[in-house]
Design goal:
The structure holds two protein chains of two kinds. Chain A is mostly beta strands. Chain A is built from no helices and twelve strands. In chain A, a hairpin with a 5-residue loop joins strand 10 and strand 11. Chain A is globular and about 45 Å long. By secondary structure, chain B is mostly beta strands. Helix content of chain B is 3%, strand content 44%. The chains are: A mainly beta, B mainly beta. At the A-B interface, strand 5, strand 6, strand 10 and strand 11 of A face strand 4, strand 5, strand 8, helix 1 and strand 9 of B.
């Protein structure tokens, strides 16, 4: 079965705090891809990152960083020095080589308080 | 270049009416997806088109839902005899190829907010 779990439904942080959004996945595929998307209040999902299953290197992009650990089937997302503009719903997603679907988690709603 | 566009942005209809939602994917993208997002919920996969292959309809919730893609480009999602539980945001996404085997990210449209009274 393919499944993505985002256990954190809502998170509130004060501006400039760091915050980590958790993502745990399940898949039987040996080759798969993990994604993070941001959905701001405007509603349109914005692609943030893609990571394939053979690349466990952590990635940093500005204030964003991602920690991919196959041993724990996790692909966590950290925002450093959060800003109000980071307030959004963040979705983790999985696609594998079986089937055509993206499997999305239920999302984590992040509110950054000024 | 232009992103994925959807129309209408908002649709209010009466229970029992049929509705058509339109999606224009990014030019050159062969894969097209439809999702449904209910208020405060995640994304529910509905249907997938890839080139000229038969669509993957495994996510359609009932036979009242159907979709077609003409000429490998524009897609229309049709909901017949709408019910109040159909109220949601319907999102369309496109990608360069099969997301599963190629890991191509999906680019999303702004969605159509459907309200069934």
């Amino acid at each position: 079965a393919q499944k993505v779990t985002q256990a954190q439904t809502e998170i509130s942080v004060v501006e400039k705090e760091d915050v980590t959004l958790d993502c745990v996945y399940e898949t039987r595929d040996t080759t798969y891809y993990l994604f993070w998307y941001k959905q701001p209040p405007s509603g349109e999902l914005v692609f943030l990152i893609r990571r394939n299953s053979f690349d466990e290197q952590n990635e940093i992009s500005g204030r964003y960083s991602w920690n991919f650990q196959k041993s724990t089937s996790s692909f966590n997302f950290t925002i450093t020095a959060s800003q109000v503009v980071d307030s959004a719903v963040y979705f983790c997603a999985l696609s594998g080589t079986t089937g055509n679907q993206f499997y999305f988690g239920t999302g984590t709603s992040l509110t950054v308080i000024p | 270049g232009a992103g994925v566009s959807q129309s209408p942005s908002n649709k209010v209809t009466e229970k029992g009416k049929d509705v058509e939602l339109r999606c224009d994917p990014i030019s050159g993208h062969t894969a097209l997806y439809w999702y449904r997002q209910s208020l405060g919920q995640g994304l529910e996969f509905l249907i997938y088109f890839q080139g000229n292959s038969a669509p993957d309809k495994s996510g359609l919730p009932s036979d009242r839902f159907s979709a077609e893609r003409t000429g490998g480009s524009v897609s229309t999602l049709t909901i017949q005899r709408t019910q109040q539980e159909d109220s949601a945001v319907y999102l369309c996404a496109s990608s360069m190829g099969t997301s599963g085997s190629m890991g191509n990210e999906q680019f999303f449209g702004p969605g159509t907010r459907l309200t069934v009274l």
